[in-house]
């Protein structure tokens, strides 16, 4: 592979992304909401409530269904501390995965359909690079910032959770091992999921909005995880997170294989 050409395309794509307000606004605003506002409110809620036990009673069903090992992890906490741990460690965990998924999908949609819409894709298609090099460059342009935001977001979430909940917890309690696996193992896999789906649809879509909407269906599995965790159907233990990551990486491999087989610059050029 021609890594010099790949790096040049990646730099060019990222420069375009940073200059596009329609892409950058959701990439900035949504992570701030998920990583600062929501954990901050969840951490401060017990301090603002007169009776945190009322909130805990609403979580009783979730608590009763927790595996023994997870129940032991909150043993010894008072009611306010249990509310904080359940909210920040468990309930918001699947929502964190929406971030790398969203970032990868937005940038991938702009990278293919967006360039087609701006009439800048044709020049790129006629550069002396192979189809494989061009596809790898386009995928890295989406994957790298998505993973970077996921990992930076993990650090930001950790700081927000510990600072906002200090009055209740009195110590650094976050992250636990499950969250480390979630950030380092599952988040990149989820970014690959969003990227793989969007690559398949955006190379055929005519506009950025069309590609993004078609690729938006990929968020459904993550929403199922959110609902499943909130209703107590499943629990984000370390083992479950490792298994989820393995499943998503396998799906990614299939999507990348299909994307590589379907990607032909001649077809893209003919469709413009």
Describe the fold and architecture.
This protein is mostly helical and 272 residues long. The chain has one domain (3-270). Helices cover 82% and strands 0% of the residues. The protein has helices at residues 3-19, 21-48, 52-58, 60-65, 68-73, 79-91, 93-96, 98-118, 121-125, 131-164, 166-169, 177-202, 208-215, 220-231, 238-262, 265-270. The chain is elongated, with a radius of gyration of 21 Å.
Quick structural gist:
The protein has 272 residues and is mainly alpha-helical. It has 16 helices and no strands. It has one domain (3-270).
Output the keywords.
16 helices, elongated, mainly alpha, 272 residues, 82% helix
Helices and strands, with pairings:
Elements (H helix, E strand, L loop, with lengths): L2 H17 L1 H28 L3 H7 L1 H6 L2 H6 L5 H13 L1 H4 L1 H21 L2 H5 L5 H34 L1 H4 L7 H26 L5 H8 L4 H12 L6 H25 L2 H6 L2
**Quick one: biggest sheet?**
none
Q: What Rg is obtained from the alpha carbons, in whole angstroms? A: 21 Å
Order of helices and strands: HHHHHHHHHHHHHHHH
Tally of DSSP β-strands: 0
Could you tell me the strand content as a percent range? under 5%
How many helices does DSSP assign? 16
Mean pLDDT: 83
Computed structural class: mainly alpha
Query: Gap between N and C termini, in Å?
Result: 27 Å
Overall helicity: over 70%
Principal-axes geometry comes out as elongated
């Amino acid at each position: 592979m021609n890594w010099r050409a790949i790096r040049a395309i990646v730099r060019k794509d990222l420069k375009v992304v940073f200059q596009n307000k329609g892409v950058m606004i959701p990439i900035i605003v949504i992570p701030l909401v998920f990583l600062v506002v929501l954990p901050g409110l969840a951490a401060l809620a017990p301090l603002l409530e007169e009776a945190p036990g009322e909130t805990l009673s609403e979580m009783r069903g979730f608590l009763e269904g927790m595996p023994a090992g997870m129940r032991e992890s909150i043993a010894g906490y008072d009611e306010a501390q249990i509310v904080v741990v359940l909210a920040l460690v468990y309930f918001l965990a699947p929502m964190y995965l929406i971030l790398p998924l969203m970032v990868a999908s937005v940038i991938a949609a702009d990278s293919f359909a967006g360039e087609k819409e701006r009439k800048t894709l044709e020049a790129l298609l006629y550069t002396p690079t192979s189809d494989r090099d061009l596809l790898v460059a386009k995928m890295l342009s989406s994957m790298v910032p998505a993973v970077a935001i996921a990992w930076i977001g993990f650090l930001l979430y950790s700081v927000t959770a510990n600072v906002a909940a200090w009055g209740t917890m009195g110590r650094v309690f976050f992250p636990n091992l499950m969250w480390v696996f979630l950030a380092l193992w599952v988040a990149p896999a989820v970014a690959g999921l969003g990227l793989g789906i969007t690559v398949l649809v955006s190379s055929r879509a005519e506009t950025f909005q069309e590609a993004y909407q078609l690729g938006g269906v990929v968020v459904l599995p993550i929403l199922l995880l959110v609902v499943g965790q909130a209703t107590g159907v499943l629990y984000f233990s370390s083992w479950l997170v490792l298994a989820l990551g393995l499943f998503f990486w396998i799906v990614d491999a299939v999507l990348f294989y299909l994307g590589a087989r379907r990607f032909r610059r001649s077809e893209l050029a003919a469709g413009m």
